[in-house]
């Protein structure tokens, strides 16, 4: 985060303030009558803070540089990649390549994907979709929980 803030033009005094804000935080867990010892909190962006949303945007702002073969759309913490292709092999190659790159970017930024909220679909004419077999894309990187994207051309109810 500090590297990215520096890259965007923050001076040393401003960076020191952000370091203090980000790296001097502490956490405690309380369950019923039991309270844990206080521990330093060294990763993450403070949620609910005035700067949390801005810092998150700085963190994910360069996500678009992680994809080479697809296009990306981003809004807050939601991201979508899409690829317009002429055939199955190209689609599989584009999505597998870009999800692997995204996994590497996530690792570098200490991010994880919420797999339970991930969706996928294929759009096209019924004639074209009838020729597309199901696609499985495997995403597995450290700090990026392994998951599978299953794209089906068949309508399921």
Can you characterise this structure?
With 157 residues, the chain is α+β, with helices and mostly antiparallel strands. It is built from 5 helices and 8 strands. It has a two-stranded antiparallel sheet with strand order 1-4. Strands 2-3 form a two-stranded antiparallel ribbon. A two-stranded antiparallel ribbon has the order 5-6. Strand 2 (30-31) and strand 3 form a beta hairpin. The protein is elongated and about 60 Å long. Mean pLDDT is 77; it is low at 142-157.
Terminal CA distance reads 44 Å
Given helix and strand content, the structural type is alpha+beta
Order of helices and strands: HHEEEEHEEHHEE
What about the largest sheet? 2 strands, antiparallel
Strand order of the largest sheet: 1-4
Number of strands: 8
Globally, the shape reads elongated
Unreliable residue runs: 142-157
- Residue share in helix: 25-40%
Strand content: 15-25%
Report the radius of gyration as a whole number of Å: 20 Å
Count of helical stretches: 5
Mean pLDDT: 77
Summarize the model shown.
By secondary structure, this protein is α+β, with helices and mostly antiparallel strands. The chain has helices spanning 2-7, 12-23, 52-60, 88-108, 126-129, and strands spanning 26-27, 30-31, 34-35, 39-40, 71-75, 78-82, 135-141, 144-151.
Defining key terms:
single chain; 157 residues; alpha+beta; two-stranded antiparallel ribbon; 5 helices; 8 strands; disordered C terminus
SSE map:
Elements: H1 2-7, H2 12-23, E1 26-27, E2 30-31, E3 34-35, E4 39-40, H3 52-60, E5 71-75, E6 78-82, H4 88-108, H5 126-129, E7 135-141, E8 144-151
